[in-house]
Design goal:
The structure is a homotrimer. By secondary structure, chain A is an alpha+beta fold. Chain A has 3 helices and 10 strands. The radius of gyration of chain A is 17 Å and the shape is elongated. Chains A and B meet through strand 4, helix 2 and strand 7 of A and strand 3, helix 3 and strand 10 of B.
Chain lengths: ~140, ~140, ~140
């Protein structure tokens, strides 16, 4: 059995953005040497997401726009209070809620050394609270 | 280690519907010969979903109705524009958004040759943009 | 290959609550003897969830409050009718919908015998329809 874990760094540039990481995930699968198995992608942060949809800019905008419609920044959140452990006001409750409903991980099959997915499925790292340096995990397991 | 991947075809009949695929997934597990391990189910499309809930028609309707309440077809979506690569207007932004919040995959344990899940958990392929011929993946890994 | 499945019982105390199960999941990983592999956590119920976010009480409240804003108990649900098989009125459509959008499982890498996750990622069992005795699965697979 081959088991490989990669921690991949990512510098986001905006407060909110959808970053296509499909090539990086496919590269991690290729480097692992696994021919058949599973690949799991997971963000390591609670104000970001890991989401699979069609890879087109208008949809990226729609997801960010409509997540903000569901969870407006200006809502009255319990998290908007002084946080001792952070030494500042909690201002990103909307980012955490978007992370929760937009999902934080996905598992794909691997076959003949390649990630198996639909032709239109693009893997996105979702930044809801940037810009920040982010890390996501790609774990590959198989033989 | 046994690793088996099945691509299962499905013809959907309506613009939106919830199709119980529990028996097909359990059959793929049985055929794999895996006694203990994991099974992962994943749709291959970005306007469909893979969702687990109680298997009753009234709930299927509630999910479709309330997903449409959150993402009405008539909203003003960026995706509603001419798409060069498709040669047509993007008309299904709501379907993509439903796919994202309703989830596209689930991983279950396998024990003694059987998928482990709660007695009321039913596995659904969710069509948000049909009718279409669809494919979903069932990957089984274990020994 | 080591494959271990634990069914963990949990008595919830409120109609809705977020219960931190990170220590229980980490304990199941430690007991499994797996050094490197994957861990999958899954609720066995359709009116509960399994969700990962920052472990602070104000966020727990925000998630429960805003899920209830999206799916109010007083909405007109198809599920609110007499259910023969239950011998009672279906009253928890909102709980099922929260379960669906808040996710029911998550898969994490395991490395050097430990679950790999971000420093602020807390694993929650989400009760949307309690108080009840609940069971969730922790499956560990690796070597």
């Amino acid at each position: 059995m081959i088991i490989k874990l990669e921690r991949i760094k990512l510098q986001t540039r905006k407060s909110e953005e959808a970053i296509d990481i499909t090539a990086q995930v496919e590269d991690a699968v290729a480097k692992s040497g696994v021919r058949n198995g599973l690949g799991n992608v997971l963000t390591s942060h609670t104000s970001s997401g890991l989401l699979v949809t069609e890879g087109i800019p208008c949809l990226e905008e729609d997801i960010l726009t409509h997540f903000s419609r569901l969870f407006p920044e200006s809502e009255d959140y319990h998290h908007r209070r002084y946080l001792d452990y952070d030494g500042r006001l909690g201002f990103n409750a909307d980012a955490h809620l978007k992370s929760v409903i937009g999902v934080i991980s996905c598992t794909f099959p691997i076959e003949n050394g390649k990630l198996v997915k639909g032709s239109r499925q693009t893997i996105y790292f979702m930044e809801y609270d940037g810009p920040l340096e982010r890390i996501y995990f790609v774990q590959v397991l198989g033989e």
